[in-house]
User: Fold these one by one.
Assistant:
Number 1:
Amino acid sequence: MSFSSSPVVSLRDVAIYQDMNTILSNVNFDIDKGEFVYLVGRTGSGKSSLLKTLYADLPLLTGSATVADFRLSKLPRQQVPFLRRKIGIIFQDFQLLVDRTVSENLSFVLRATGWKDKSKRKQRISEVLMQVGLDAAANKMPHQLSGGEQQRIVIARALLNEPAILFADEPTGNLDPQVADGIMQLFQEINNSGTAVLMATHNYEIINRYPRRVLKCESGKVLDSQVEAFTLTNGF
Ligand SMILES: Nc1ncnc2c1ncn2[C@@H]1O[C@H](COP(=O)(O)OP(=O)(O)OP(=O)(O)O)[C@@H](O)[C@H]1O
């Protein structure tokens, strides 16, 4: 367990690349423990690329950054799984293993992250399913669940190792407004219990309903609502 009070995410003079192209530059922000932050910007403005850099799917080549006490610059490949245990990643498309039950999907992650004791795995699976309101779904196959329920299982999976922060890339993008709202409420509950959240979204309604700090990718920079005022207009 870490007792440091340092931010869970800290970026200094970071640049984000795809291939040889600079997507964002001079990126500077911190996210405190337990904070909830939106990430917005037009299609192609760099939200996913920024998130990918934060969960070490893209290398950090310029500037310095720490995520959950891991320094991303020159992060050895063997360290990536250890970083990933401290963070949770949630995508728009649910990415559950379709040929396994909910419980097996979750157990798969626990075994891959060092949980050797079967009864402890079972206990933890029951806890996270309870947290997302789907404790009755343990033995169901993903296709027996609605889109919103599948997304809840993905969130449960992301919570298994008690992450310091959740990175969510358009987690409500494929869902009806009402279902999306339920997912947002779940994110609020998770956040209220102390987990930081960085959520990329195009959904202006959601930001209006649950207003929080906003980071906006625009013209190759990241604007921060905590630092400067900017408008959130159509299509961002
Ligand atoms: N794998 C890749 N290889 C090369 N270029 C890429 C790759 N992925 C994204 N890009 C480019 O990087 C830029 C930023 O894309 P990115 O996906 O980060 O934007 P985004 O803000 O997340 O967009 P969206 O809202 O559509 O998800 C775009 O110009 C895109 O074409």
Number 2:
Amino acid sequence: MMISFAVAIVPMAKPSFIRAEQPLAPDLAADCTALGRGAASRCRDIVFVVNPRGANGKTGKEWKKLLPHLRSRLGSDFNICESLTSGPCHAIDITREAIREGADAVIAVGGDGTLHEVVNGFFWGGKPVSNNDQSVHTTALGLIPLGTGSDFARTFGRKNDPHDAIERISKVSAKAGYYASRYKKFGKLCYVIGALQAFFGHYNQDLKIKVDNGGWDVYPLVTALCIGNAKYFGGGMKITPNGHPSSGTFEVVVLQDFKWYEFVLNLHKLYNGTHLSVKNVSSRSASSIEIEEIVSTNSIFVQSDGEYLGFLPKKFSILPGAIEMIC
Ligand SMILES: Nc1ncnc2c1ncn2[C@@H]1O[C@H](COP(=O)(O)OP(=O)(O)OP(=O)(O)O)[C@@H](O)[C@H]1O
């Protein structure tokens, strides 16, 4: 069985962010290449955190093609700092360092995994990271979606066109400055293949769920539980169709006693968001949720934005308005 939750981010003015109550990543030694090379004072206004290995390496290639356009579009308003990630979790460190150094905006360039890491770089020990001089200046978050799925951007109705993303960044540039695996070679189909493969050796599990500090509800034979403050995951599956980053809540969708053939038969509904009317599918909205096994096996896998997040039990909660996002 798998628990997944779509994203942990934000839109417009003061949106919300989903937080896992346990640390999302270790605080690795800060070795942000771009800022650590002594270029911080030159490059700290807008930092592009680029995952060159995203989408099977396509992100790196697309980014190289995009750079000249980006420089000509934003170069007059911003000092542009490009920082390539060297491996998993590096984006977290780069982001934290950029915020501490007073960056006006940090832009994730890659897929949902990269965005996930950048968002987590905005926090440390459950609290927002602040810049070194402790001023009211804040750092905005932006996204150039160049990953395999890039599902978060879909919630905003985006076609995941990087040029559109640059236009959005250029339009709000003044404001930003002010406010202060494995099947990826199959592209988006990798998510369907991965989900089908997950059914083999899969077993349903009885769970208990506590929503918004209420009582515990028992959910027998859970096949999958998905939490989202955005609508999409799995390369365009509208899994939490009522989720939206500005709602201040997330949507919880539970699939119970689902067979692999039901997954196949209902695949089109998962993609267009009409699966909530299917038998054994339920949905509710929440601002915090605790999930535990009825009988503990410590084997219920949790993933977030395609990233491994450990095993149950887990608690997730919304942090309303935690990050200013360029969108
Ligand atoms: N230099 C690197 N080499 C290998 N892996 C990296 C590197 N930099 C970052 N990563 C890891 O790659 C993961 C996936 O990247 P990303 O989300 O950008 O692309 P994707 O998986 O193709 O897109 P999506 O998540 O939208 O499907 C990130 O979460 C990160 O942990």
